[in-house]
Amino acid sequence: MSGRSRPAALPAPRAPAGPDGQPAAYYGRPVLKPPVWTWQVPAYLFAGGLAGAAGPLAFAARLAGNDRLARAALTSGAAAALVSPPLLIADLGRPERFHHMLRVVKPTSPLNVGSWLLAAAAPALAGAAVADRLGILPRLARGTEAAAALLGPALATYTGVLLADTAIPTWHEAGRELPALFAAGAATSAGAVACLLVPPGPADPARRLALGGAAAELGVHAAMERRLGDLGDPYRTGLAGRLTRLARRLTVAGAVTLGLAGRRRLPTAAGAALLLVGSAATRYAVVAAGSASARDPRHVVAPQRRRLAAGDGDHRP
Amino acid sequence: MTLPARPDRDAPGGGREPAGRVGFFTDTSVCIGCKACEVACKEWNLVPPAGPAELTGHSYDNTGALGANTWRHVAFIEVDQLHPGLRAPAPPARRAAGGGGARVGVGQAREGLRWLMASDVCKHCTSAACLDVCPTGALFRTEFGTVVVQPDICNGCGYCVPACPFGVIDRREADGRAWKCTLCYDRLKGGLEPACSTACPTDSIQFGPLEELRERAGERVAELHGAGVAEARLYLAGEDDGVGGAGAFFLLLDEPEVYGLPPDPVATTRDLGRLWRAGVVAAGALLAGIAAAFLPRGGRR
Known about the structure:
The complex is a heterodimer. Chain A is mainly alpha-helical. Chain A has a single domain, classed as Formate dehydrogenase/DMSO reductase fold, CATH 1.20.1630.10. Chain A has 10 helices and no strands. Chain A has helices at residues 40-63, 67-91, 110-134, 138-164, 169-172, 177-197, 204-228, 238-261, 265-295, 297-309. The relative contact order of chain A is 0.15. Chain B is α+β, with helices and mostly antiparallel strands. Chain B has one domain: 2-Layer Sandwich (Alpha-Beta Plaits), CATH 3.30.70.20. Chain B has 10 helices and 10 strands. The radius of gyration of chain B is 23 Å and the shape is globular. The termini of chain B are far apart. Chains A and B meet through helix 1, helix 3, helix 4, helix 6 and helix 7 of A and helix 5, helix 6, strand 6 and helix 10 of B.
């Protein structure tokens, strides 16, 4: 990190012409509008992912007879699922109209689909956690656990589809990687939280999940940057670049610490905490990269020019 | 210079009820940059100020860009002077005299200056990404084929904002909802044409049935080409572009990006099938990963 005290605003795109004679946009102004989303959205990407992976983790732990791990996953998943709607509602321009999300069923809107997923998964996780804690309603507990296990993976990955389904080049062109990146982050965070709550032994599957998730996060992010080429430059410069480097360091440090911790509780907890912060930082980096991409007219113009030059300008279905 | 004919307004009893899909044809070759469209739009639609007035230094454009509070935006481009790198075709005389890419000196400023003006607006796309991604159904397609936000439904989620490939729609800060050009839905309902095209003194902004406008635009380009304006070209006038054809299309005198328009816009939702499949694959991988975490020792104590 540089010595600058606060993250500078994204560098203004250089006005107009590129050195390669590539025409630039009007006075270097953005062609697209950056998202208006505030800090709550990346926070939700983290919380929703954690809740999404916690559902199937609890279910698998139950099948394996690992009730302590199942309980920890349900508790953390329910907490994350219950904090998610307030985060999303706070980000709305008209929070009192949050229920308008559920006035239609609209598969062309990943945000609509996600609202329905969250509306189903959050009560399922909360119900399962309460039934498990109180030891009541065993049939309801089994049913809600199964529901959370089924809905969870979709809850963890639809957000990648949501970001990719925009005009922002750095997001749209990463349509294959973003859901995978968020799935990996979900696995990391659900596993890491369970490592914090459950003693080593019963936490072993969670530790393996967290380590596997961390490796997948690093690998998918690298693959995404490779595919994006020039469109991946927000991940290397400015605010998103700093967040990306921070996330990578935290994830690597967390994975190494957790991997070497063995049965020692303190290093385990330290490693898990590093992984959680790293996974959250990744979400912030992705959102910041999208903002930077939207503000840079070259991201819009250059690939479209290349497409036209290649004769792929006919989009008739 | 003869202005293009305007049967919809010039005929007696003009302002007839539009039939089917209507739109705008903005012929920038006759735009004089008067901004009457911006003013008329603001007045009719009661659009609040976009912010404190400020001078951008970008020629006569102190509006900047389309947004929640700017539904018509007139762009001013002073080619060669402020933008020596822009790929505007140099006038033949200058090209011969000055040599490739020579900058225009102060004395020659008038000669070397090429001034482009264009009034931009929501494109009312056939494949409208904003409408597709809107989770509440606040954005809808009207009986005129236009795309309109219902302010009583919009909850300000902001998803339409980065979905638009033209950067048109935005969230109004104080109000919290998304706003953009309605193609004067209320006026259309009342049998009137939109405020901007009514106010346009040179018929640069033409309103009418889309089919008719496309025909007229084709004739206008041919006319300009015949007059030696080889750089005249239509933008979004067909149906083979990435938004399936636009309800508002343009005759431009340079590349679209010079005006701040994307050269080959594609509605993001055209790829939605592929994107959902990637989501399903990732969800499956997550399940598999969780299952694998329990394999080595069965997860038992």
